Amino acid sequence: MSQSGDWIKVQSGSTTGWVANWLVSVQAVQNTPAKPAAPPANSAPVPGIQVAVINADNINLRSGPGTQHNVAGQVSRGVRLPVISRSGDWVQVSRENGSPAWVAGWLVSFVDQPEPPQPPQDDKSWLPGPQPEPGSGQEPTREPDKEYIPEAKLVDVQISEQSDRTYINIVSDHDIEYNTFTLSNPFRYVVNLRDVYLDKTPEIIPAGTNLVQQVRTGFSKDPYISRLVLDLKQAARVKVSLSSDKKALTLEISKISYSDGLAGKNVFLDAGHGGYDNGASGKNGLREKDVNLDITLKVAEILRKQGANVFFSRSDDTFIDLYERTRMANDQSADVFVSIHSNANPNTAIGGTSTYYYAPPAIPALYEQRDDRRRLAEDVQRELVGALGRRDIGVLQANFAVLRTSIMPSILIETAFVSNAEEEALLGAEDFRQRAAEAIARGISAYFSGQ
Ligand SMILES: [Zn+2]
């Protein structure tokens, strides 16, 4: 950090002079006190919370946002502390003992979450199921569970095709409790049924429709889950509906369309970080904020050519508060909010692409949009994984501020990891960024076309 960079020229009446920028920020703090924020229950960083990484040796923690406040302790380089709030250039963090303290924002870098959340379990990890008794001749996944067999049975799986759409009707004799997710490379759609016994359902059900090759079945225990894996012939959209008596689940599988979806749509693009907040930094000096901005500007260009109205939280290297970002999008009545980031992890071997949305039952306004939020995330994640060829970490839910405070369907994209040397090099390359931008634009287009 250059010494002159810490000083700012100011004017007071007819006199000009120089003042240290950390004193300027202290003044600003007095005019706009930080909003009170409760510290987390413990200091362990959790996904969805921004983490400040200390970038200097033995720096002071203070009791308030400014050098006039008492020194409350010291932290050494590399320590990671969850961010509670910000005030001017100062950052309130949760100390390792759980108590809050303040640190100068220019002495830390910010990363979005310390560990990637667990991706959805890949179907291969539990198929085949329990090993058969020697000589029993039973299929490995079909051995009856001697300890526990659910009362509910799967009574039928019907497959039909109508004007290019495949319909799969899954029928049980009890209420169906289910969840679903998609996998790419190759494209699969997975339906988990809680506490349903497969009974006489075949292990492989040929489909032979335009979009679905076959349906494979299997189960796992603790908890007891039966799984149907649809092997898709191409990327497809799957609409799930549960019958009013909750005993039949219908999957409507249709082609993904990219046509005419974008004309007149308001798309808000949010390039992550900016200004003094570099985001994550790579070993070779790549800064996340620069990658995010470049990809964002490329996405905007593609979307505008297809008739979308594009808005930005930032279109240059400036710092913008997280809540200001969603306030802008909410004010502009954006149809979607797309936040573009690059990931980081202390384990530099970790790489891959992930997309987050947030729609918990506890927040009804978000939960009402859960299908749209998730579909937007799935459409973009699928295109990104296909275009970039990095590990598919998947579509995940996370309580990021921008996802929680946006009133329209919103996603946060982590294109790849700047902390991974191979992906840092890719993220620094023009063609990789262009491919990422085209994939994001295609995903947004598919989302609108599928509405
Ligand atoms: Zn980020």
UniProtKB/TrEMBL annotation:
Residues 49-111 form the SH3b domain. Pfam families: Amidase_3, AMIN, SH3_3. Residues 111-144 are annotated as: Disordered. One of its GO terms (biological process) is peptidoglycan catabolic process. Signal peptide: none annotated. It comes from the Bacteria. Keywords: Cell wall biogenesis/degradation, Hydrolase. This is SH3b domain-containing protein. GO terms for molecular function: N-acetylmuramoyl-L-alanine amidase activity. The keyword Hydrolase applies. One of its GO terms (cellular component) is outer membrane-bounded periplasmic space. It comes from Desulforamulus profundi.
